Amino acid sequence: MGDAMENEKITINLGHVDLGRIDLLVQEGFYANRSDFIRTAIRNQLTAQADAVARSIERHTLELGLHDITRIELEAALQAGRMLHVRVVGLARIAGDVPADLARQTIGSITVLGALQAPAAVKAALADRIS
């Protein structure tokens, strides 16, 4: 895909007939491989459902894409006495230099539909706040 975000690997189960049909399309040159077919099918469905996704993101006040949480941002929140409530569709990353205690003091909740990348100690400290 070539974008800045990392890809997430998933596993799916398909019936033999569907798998055979995909293999036939690959063999006939319509797709480079099975993964190419599956990525294309997913993108087509996401495009077809784009309006519903946009309405849902707006309704739930979710941020779409990449959200980086830095130590500076958390230190500023701590100084201001406010808790962050992170809601992301995509990838949320907590910087590697964020101490677990700072994250615990400043992040009230994290909801990520996609992937969360954070140091293990930070994930452990926020385990009861991650959904």
Automatic annotation (TrEMBL):
Signal peptide: none annotated. PANTHER family: BLL4998 PROTEIN. It comes from Paracoccus sphaerophysae. It comes from the Bacteria. GO terms for biological process: regulation of DNA-templated transcription. The lineage of its organism: Bacteria, Pseudomonadati, Pseudomonadota, Alphaproteobacteria, Rhodobacterales. This is CopG family transcriptional regulator. It holds the Pfam family RHH_8. InterPro entries: Arc_rbn_hlx_hlx, RHH_8, Ribbon_hlx_hlx.
